[in-house]
């Protein structure tokens, strides 16, 4: 049986709004195995994106624990958490989060630049550029390397975002509504692409989605309701 790569224990998250405390997550327990695809579904406002941000170490829980490969992350310093996030986690978002002034290639390269010092990057820049180009070519964007996001279709922008997520060879890829901003035909193309990547790379995927087709193809589908996660 594959080993557990990502785990949460009694995870809670509260926000203070207007002087009142809003409990979004209420004791979430989750275990994700290496190579598994887990879909998390639920109504809008159920806390799905909040949970994904916690799993990706973009935010800290109010209480509870998040473990990567058995390592407790809540006790780590901010720099240590950032290193795990950059090297172990890839993100794919609904609205792409690409920089419009940069080309597709530059958007992918930027995520790699942040992982090195200036001197380290100077020595690795050609290798990293070749790696980013190869990733984009594999995703069907070989003719679009120098196009900026406004010059790309929605599906092409999402492919750039997927390339950016994969270029660092992360252990876990977190997808927040990856088809939510696409038309039905393009969404289906992205679904096929994601599961082809799963087959070819063996990576672990956690998907937050309203797309029943996407959720139905996952190894497991979990439902987040009123801050509680269940099957």
Question: What characteristics describe this protein?
Answer:
4-stranded antiparallel beta sheet; 231 residues
Radius of gyration: 18 Å
Q: What's the arrangement of strands in the largest beta sheet?
A: 6-7-8-3-9-10
What's the total helix number?
A: 7
Shape: globular
Assign the CATH architecture. Answer: 3-Layer(aba) Sandwich
Tell me the total number of β-strands: 10
In helices, the fraction of residues equals 25-40%
The CATH topology label is: Rossmann fold
Gap between N and C termini: 20 Å
Report the sheet-strand fraction: 25-35%
Order of helices and strands: EEEHEEHEHHHEHEHEE
- Average pLDDT reading: 92
Q: Please write the CATH class name.
A: Alpha Beta
Domain module tally? 1
Helices and strands in order, then pairings?
Elements: E1 4-17, E2 20-33, E3 37-41, H1 48-55, E4 63-68, E5 71-72, H2 78-88, E6 89-93, H3 104-113, H4 118-138, H5 154-166, E7 172-176, H6 184-201, E8 204-208, H7 212-216, E9 220-225, E10 228-230
Parallel strand pairs: 3-8, 3-9, 6-7, 7-8
Antiparallel strand pairs: 1-2, 1-4, 4-5, 9-10
